Amino acid sequence: MLKIGTVRWRGKCSKHPMFDPYTDGRGAVKGGCPRCNALADIHECHQRMVSLMRGFSPPVVRKKPSVPMDDLQESLF
Ligand SMILES: [Zn+2]
Description:
The chain has a domain at 12-59. 42% of the residues lie in helices and 0% in strands. The mean pLDDT is 88. It has helices at 21-24, 34-56, 70-74. It binds zinc ion.
């Protein structure tokens, strides 16, 4: 069995604090900056890990309690 707890992590390049690998992509790394490239590597590994986890065990879809739709509109009139 493998257990992975919740991980909250933040990383920022001091030279390029606006670089966001999620929205900018690796192509936006300026001058081959090693810190920005490391952020892009971490982002790619995280995306792959999430994809592998979802492939192994798809997320459980919780059903919302059903509300009869017929009664909702009557209160407006
Ligand atoms: Zn950088």
